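Chain A, query sequence.
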Amino acid sequence: MKSYDYRPRGVCSRAIHLTLSDDGKTIEDVSFEGGCNGNLKAIGKLVKGRSTDEVASILAGNTCGPRQTSCADQLALALKAAEEAAEAPAC
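Chain A, predicted structure.
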């Protein structure tokens, strides 16, 4: 398993913690620091075991109130960032 931390922008949550399968294509666990606790725990349960591409495509562009983003949208960005980090050549 691979773990990634992401610092979201423009939302109440302060951090998103991801655990992905060894190949980086399946979500093993998601947790948020801050934000709407119950809703974010529910998101973590709903996405567990799903493909990163599927979840990112579903959640991308979701907004929260007047904001141009949401914790769900930020999770989509976090998944894309984790994918890019996994594909980056090791130094």
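The two ends are 20 Å apart (CA to CA). The chain has one domain: 2-87.
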